[in-house]
């Protein structure tokens, strides 16, 4: 539990520092103490839950990118600029544990399956298949994900964006 709290503190600190560096409104969102939820998923609802730091029903590209960068940096425990499979899965598991804790749930079969799926996702996102998931690979996924959900091309994602069928969305694997 101590490692979990230390990791959570480190992640929160990274978000706050990133937000302070470039976006005053992001600083306010971080200070509100409302972490993005859920840990993962597909479609607009999961996306809004994961990336809407202002809790206003809209995810701007800046909000989205700030969280993606923060997650990547906090997951890179050895500071080498890339994520191993263990680092990638541990970052996801940390978010999943927090979600379960906040919902008053104990890890269950769905939790175990989500962790197994994180290992599968790593094999997909690490396009070079070299065991080094790079920030460039993450940025490419982020770009495809955001563009796939910003169907009205206004630079933000909200429920106002008409949903495409799942096969046409190019859903994120994260």
From TrEMBL:
Coiled coil: none annotated. One of its GO terms (molecular function) is calcium ion binding. This is EF-hand domain-containing protein. The lineage of its organism: Bacteria, Pseudomonadati, Pseudomonadota, Betaproteobacteria, Burkholderiales. Residues 1-21 form the signal peptide. Residues 63-98 form the EF-hand domain. Residues 144-174 are annotated as: Disordered. Gene3D superfamilies: EF-hand. It comes from the Bacteria. It holds the Pfam family EF-hand_5. Keywords: Signal. It comes from Variovorax guangxiensis.
């Amino acid at each position: 539990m101590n490692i979990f709290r230390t990791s959570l503190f480190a992640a929160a600190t990274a978000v706050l520092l990133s937000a302070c560096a470039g976006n005053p409104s992001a600083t306010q969102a971080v200070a509100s103490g409302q972490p993005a939820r859920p840990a993962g998923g597909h479609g607009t609802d999961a996306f809004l839950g994961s990336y809407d730091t202002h809790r206003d029903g809209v995810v701007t590209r800046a909000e989205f990118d700030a969280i993606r960068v923060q997650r990547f940096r906090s997951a890179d425990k050895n500071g080498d600029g890339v994520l191993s499979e263990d680092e990638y899965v541990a970052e996801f598991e940390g978010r999943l544990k927090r979600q379960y804790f906040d919902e008053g749930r104990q890890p269950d079969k769905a939790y175990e399956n989500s962790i197994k799926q994180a290992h599968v996702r790593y094999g997909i996102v690490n396009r070079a298949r070299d065991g080094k998931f790079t920030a460039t690979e993450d940025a490419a996924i982020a770009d495809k994900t955001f563009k796939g959900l910003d169907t009205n091309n206004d630079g933000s994602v909200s429920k106002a964006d008409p949903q495409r069928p799942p096969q046409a969305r190019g859903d994120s694997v994260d």
